[in-house]
Prior knowledge:
This protein is α/β, with parallel strands linked by helices. The protein has helices at 29-42, 57-63, 79-90, 105-119, and strands at residues 2-4, 10-12, 51-54, 71-74, 98-99.
Amino acid sequence: PAGLDGRGVLTLGPYHSHKCLRCPPNMCKRKILAEYLEERAREDVEFQRVLYVGDGANDFCPAGMLRAADVAFPRKGFPMHRLILETQERQPGVFQAAVVPWESALEVQRYLQELLRRKC
């Protein structure tokens, strides 16, 4: 969060505090995603599938909490993709989500269109 202090100077604060060792100290995307899903569950909203698109190392953290029905879209050759590949090699079965690497957003769009087409 950002705001002006008493002198009118813009100050930036951490998004939240967390104990995740992988993420930067100001924000853990896994915690944000988990809190969002918990909040929606309290509102009786359940998701059949979570789709997560990312590329950075800090996107690996939330992708690691995805279930077998979910889909992770790591950008090919970027840290998130490399970390998923390393995890799948070192600890088979730990990373549960389907993995759909992409180079262009059009690939993600095509996947989503096909997913919607199969549902209709």
